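Below is a complete specimen:
___
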Amino acid sequence: MIYLLCLVLFSIGLYCILVKRNLIKIIIGLVIMEYAVNLAFILFGYRLGGRAPILAQDQTIKNMVDPLPQALVLTAIVIGLATTALIVAIAVRIYDRYKTFDITKIRRLKG
């Protein structure tokens, strides 16, 4: 059920990218898609009643949460933040040049 909610969140972001014509709304859609994928990765590694992956000498591990998706998502968040900052910087430069965020007007103003 909760995986379906990740798909809905991803679909909302994809809708923003495909339908909207404002660069800022497209960037927000991209960020929504990114966080939907991150949430799905975290949910893949989750186990109901799972323990943290910390070992002790006298304990046996029975139901441990997988730490690999958590590490991957932490890396993806940092990379996504840098990518988003780059895209926003490019959008600001486009706005400085064309005085609009509308991509249909930007396409007409080539040159």
